[in-house]
Amino acid sequence: MIERHAIAKVLLCISGVLFCRAAMAEPDEAVLKAEAARVATVAKATPTVVCIFAHEGQGGGSGVLISPEGYALTNFHVTREAGTGMKCGLADGKLYDAVIVGVDPTGDLAMIQLLGREDFPAAELGDSDLLHAGDWCFTAGNPFLLATDFHPSIAYGIISGTHRYQYPDGTLLEYADCLQVDAAINPGNSGGPLFNSQGKLIGINGRGSFEKRGRVNVGVGYAISGNQLRNFIGWLKSGRVVDHATLGATVSTAEDGRVTVSDILENSDAYRRGLRIDDEIVRFAGRDIRSTNSFKNILGIFPKGWRVPLTYRRDGQTYETMVRLRGVHHEVELAAAVEGPQMPIIPMPPKDGEPKKEEPKQEEPKNNEPKKSEPKPAPSSPLPIPEPLAKLFHQPPPLPDAVKKRFEARPGFANYFYNKLNRDRVWKSDMARGDFSSLSGPWSFSGDLVGGGVFSAKLLDKEASMSLPLGDTKLENTDNLGDVLNPPGSGGLLAALHLWRKLQVGGPGHYGEVTYLGTMPLEGHDRWVDVLLGTTGGVDCQFMFDSADGTLLALEMYPQTDSDPCEVYFSDYRETDGHFLPYRFEVRYGDNVFNLFNVTKYDLQKGAGK
Amino acid sequence: MIATNRASQNFVPNLPSARRGSLAVSRVRAAMNRRIAIAFAIVIAAIASAAQASADSIPAPSFARTVAEVQPKIIKIFGSGGVRGLADYQSGFLISADGYVLTAWSHVLDTDDVTVILDDGRKFTSKLIGADPRLELAVLKIEAADLPFFDLSQANPADEGTRVLAFSNLFGVATGNEPASVLHGTIAAVTTLDARRGSYETPYQGPIYALDAMTNNPGAAGGALTDSQGHLLGVLGKELRNARNNVWLNFAIPTNELASSIEAIRTGKSPSGTKETKPKKPDNPLTLAHLGLVLIPNVLDRTPPFVDDVRTASPAASAGVHVDDLILLVDSQVVQSCAAVQKELGQLEADADVRLTLMRGNELIEVQVKPGQPQGQ
Question: For B74, which DSSP code?
């Protein structure tokens, strides 16, 4: 019957077109071509648009599919109302179960997974930095929850402004580097896609400036930019409640227009990399810095823990470095944002034993305008969640089994199921390059150093030792790995190698606590890497794996919370007795390369008990 | 990143509908329904022609180039306001290379410290050259040279259906060197203004372009309306409602309606309408006594004009003025002191109606007072 209706509709359209053509003068050829292009683009984008209905009937919103497995993006403020499970309609007229995957309360982003198919139509992500004010764009979604047949509403418009900054407005929520559009964004469009004129996904709609018309479109909507999505997609797949980043320093615009550091945390990575008060910020994360707002914009699109390039200037001298970004929020704040009522978030006091120095507060951007006549722009607001279609949901139904199977509650996580799923996926792909579980005896390897001389190392369950030209060093206490950082100047290479062996032999199950962080770029590597965070022996260690083939590319061992890690970069993998082993280690600590190790011989012993 | 790549590799435009189509073929054949089979053949033909259409379809060109050309002429203005409901920002644009600026005549300009910020982020304190109270437009001047500008003498009358771009700093979204916002739309009608502010008609009732772009937003007044090539068509109007049906109006005053007046103000030849050239003192000036109003004792340089008493059965009483109301505006003039109230009333004839804007608690109230015989002397 559906097919017959579809045919009838098409016939109606065709006859309508024929009738109109006959009745009116032939329009300009260019107009017809432009119209055809627009219709084709909308038709291409429509199947990827998701109409979200809260599972327990508390409203709804919109979303967009980004992978054939059903991963979709929406706003955090939509999933927050919807909870763990939701119903999602697609333009094919079918209703699918969906489950929460990960949330970003600060960036108002959330990932869900639609269930029941392996071939969901998916939108292609476009580069939002290529957009200009005046470019055509369109929004798609479920305004006022009109789409009872799940066919999305489309609104065409233009980009009104790029790189806009919208203030937090009393909550964690901040729209940095966002896109401003005059295409209609109304209640219910929340979380829906913004497409460019080629139908590529360039943003997620979620906020608008409203005033006298209540909460209805006044031609001023805001979308989270595609490039922020790009950075967070892998992070959200980890099932965590993810955080945004800060440099650990605040900046202000000087009278002459330079953007300078006005305050800096002494335990921040930026400080350790040499940044000081009054230094001029020249470039940050690959973009020139010309105002406080532009700095806040760039910072706002990165997740906590990423490393980005920074160029700063002091006394005419320019310095380039890579800085690690700190988290913006305390874990308790994030937890409150996810679970608590929608209220302004009150910053938490530091825990006992933590450094007492407060995070310097970023002042409102002043640029270089006079304070008196520089008002804060009228704040925009997140779109409200429209009233649900109450009749569809007389009673809150229980979670469907498909959703229950893919949900696991755990503090700090939106859905721990996805963390395990990805942790195990990464581990499985690493295992495919060599199963070390039987090799639990001593690991010995030796070779030469690029700086000159030879080395040999021996790794056991409870100790490690290394012989270098500058002498022999040992690691004897594997319960507190952060205490002794041997060899001197390496930042703890023996501890790092001990953890490398521990993960390879025991896997995540015997390592300690291992969580999946997500994907991020790794300097000097084309593809992004999957990151596992392991905690054991009193230290955190991040393991970076090639996202395509599971090769372990690097690890970073952090002896303390706010210290430089010992970084080990593995390369020159060769097959040795059925295992792929790295024959080259580059070891870095702080700003220095400690040494380059070329392995010539491995001897990995089987465990005594096996 | 992985997901994105996979998505791009696996994405086939229109895949779901094509699948539905092939499914339909088998079912239709099974049913041997000739009528539907024919219909389906037409659908196939339609899909084929649609595919052909998309093959030689050319997307509508972007306005990005026009926008980039116009933005350097658009300015952001910051001045007085910021109190409840009143924005302290608005829009304007350059009308000469040496720094004359056209903007809306509003409360934002009621300060000596009106800041003009150019598109490139340079900021200036501006001087008010004059205003046209009928058009509710003002001319400001900044000390700068070699600026890009709109030439008002090149008026381009436009017809209904013309595609337009509206440039303004609505909601004060942009600061510093951030570009103003741009909305798109069409001229929905070329008509005359029939609008009101509160319950009062606007002084200008001449021709306007009614727009389908949402220009009726805080801070948008004074912005520029251009065609799709960036030629100036008009200046964006204030936040007004249609006098008949009370809906908010999106409109612009056409350039040729304002060019001669603005040019006269700019060149100092304006016979009337500038702030400095007030009308002659009336023969029989209006006083507080005509209205039955008593203000609090004038003890300071700028005693705020609070109402101390309203005479019983006076014009002020019947108009609804209350004791303790603060008088903000006499007609459209801001009054910051008891003395200013008396001065503004003194500009009016004693038999003329006067409009008072009052603040009562957090409310703004407008009343129209019809003066009577002086009372309570």
Answer: E
Collapsed DSSP state (helix, strand, coil) of residue B7: helix
Which two tokens mark A584? 């080259």
Domain that residue B331 falls in:
288-369
Across the interface, of A71, A157, A548, the residue whose CB is closest to B184 is A157
> Which residue ranges in chain B fall short of pLDDT 70?
1-57, 84, 198-199, 270-281, 375-377
- The shortest C-alpha distance from B11 to chain A (Å) reads 6
User: CA of B205 to nearest chain A CA: how many angstroms apart?
Assistant: 24
Instruction: Output the pLDDT for position A25.
Output: 67
**Is B278 part of any domain?**
no
Check: CB of residue A189 under 8 Å from CB of residue A205: yes
Residues A178, A181: Cα–Cα separation, whole Å: 10
CATH number of the domain that B356 lies in? 2.30.42.10
- What is the rounded CA–CA span in Å between residue A583 and residue A603? 13
Give residue-wise pLDDT tens across range A267-296: 999 999 999 999 999 999 999 998 888 899
DSSP strand pairing (B232-236 vs A280-284): unpaired
Nearest CA in chain B to A380: B171
CATH number for the domain whose boundaries are A245-327: 2.30.42.10
Domain A47-122+387-419: CATH superfamily is: Trypsin-like serine proteases (2.40.10.10)
B273 part of a folded domain: no
As for the ipTM of the complex, it is: 0.81
Q: Does domain A128-228 have CATH number 3.40.50.720?
A: no
CB contact under 8 A, B181 and A161: yes
Nearest Cα to B287, choosing from B372, B200, B366?
B372
Q: What is the largest CA-CA distance in chain A?
A: 94
Bond into A469 cis (ω within 30): no
- Residues A461 and A452: beta-carbon distance below 8 Å: no
CB contact (8 A) between residue B46 and residue A198: no
Which residues of chain B neighbour A150 with C-beta distances below 8 Å? none
**Domain residues of chain A, as ranges?**
47-122+387-419, 128-228, 245-327, 422-604
- Long-range Cβ contact pairs of B305-312 (< 8 A, separation 24 or more): B305/B335, B305/B336, B305/B337, B305/B338, B305/B340, B305/B341, B307/B358, B311/B375, B311/B376
Strands B115-117 and B123-125: antiparallel
Q: Do domains A128-228 and A245-327 have the same CATH topology?
A: no
Residues B214, B162 share a domain: yes
Gap between the Cα atoms of A254 and A225, Å rounded: 28
Q: Are residues B23 and B48 in the same domain?
A: yes
B197 shares its domain with B122: yes
Extract the tokens encoding A169.
């407005």
CA atoms of A239 and B55, how far apart (whole Å): 42
Instruction: Give A485-516 pLDDT, tens digit per residue.
Output: 989 999 999 999 999 999 999 999 899 899 99
B132/B84 same-domain check: yes
Higher pLDDT, A91 or B279: A91
Structural element, H or E, at residue B19? helix B15-31
Please, which residues bridge with residue A145 across strands? none
State how far residue A10 is from chain B, nearest Cα, in angstroms.
7
Residue A607 is given by DSSP the state P
Whole-model pTM above 0.80? no
